[in-house]
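# nightly structure sweep
# worker-07 picked up a monomer target from the shared queue
# config: single-sequence mode, recycle default, output format = structure tokens
# input follows
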Amino acid sequence: MKKPTVVSLIKKELQTQLFSPADRERLNRLARIDEIEPDPEKPPRLPAETVACLTSWGSPRFTEEILTAAPDLKLVVYAAGSVRPVVSEALWKRGIVVTSASAAIAIGVAEHTLGLMLSTLKRVCRFNELLHQGGWYHQEERVKIREIYGLTVGVVGAGHAGRHFIRLLKNFEVRILLYDPYLDPAEAVRLGVEPAASLEALIPQVDVLSLHAPALPSTRDLINRENLKLFKDGALLINTARGALIDETALYEELLTGRLTACLDVRYPEPPVPEPPLWKLPNVILTPHIAGGVTDNMKRLGKYALRELENFFSGRPPVYPVTERDLERMA
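# output follows
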């Protein structure tokens, strides 16, 4: 029996990061995999018999020209986060199913968020610096440690990353508050968290605030000069979502007071501009957008893509479909 045709529009170097040898074998058993190296100067010519496409970062947008060549295309699997770079009006009109690996990426984001929270509360970076200079006990620093027991953690955004972070927090004795304007209060109860009516109601209550909202016009400068003043003294702000959620100039000015600590994995723009010089402040922990997937976690994205194809060919529904309407509230 002739195998169905799946076209990979993923860069070869990225393919090796996404798919383990074992998963690559499973793909080849499942379908005939045609590989087309993406070229930004030249749209790919899909074989007419193409039924599904594998895509990821760097894959082309599915324009009318590309789609016309493949009338049997039914599925676009996006082994990355936001599908915006590949979708088009022409694709939606054809009713082609689109799936995203954002849920797979979210696991790494949540894990990184938890790591930043625990290590910062425990002042790991500061103690590492001090111990490299000599000495051991450093009582003057030990008294500044905060531990997670009994703290109140606020989560902003109940998407995949926010929900997985909540699941991780369930391993600790903490109070969890959640703000998401799209969340049904009954769903918050099912998640085992306390819903907050607004961000302004949430902020004054929390010891830790973790951002997991999408970057949309409505979320630009979600954390700003006005609500930064609402944070408790000693609070910790974590952003592993998108840099545009924070007014960095306002954050810098607030951090200069020493009242708050911030952990930032994302900036706006990236790479960040020299001003404001957040990197000079001792109460800022910075990582270079490494939360979602860099090495080992990339294989989880490949596993997700394989699962979506297996579901498609067996007649099962997609695990993480994305519709045109979903984009209204997705990054």
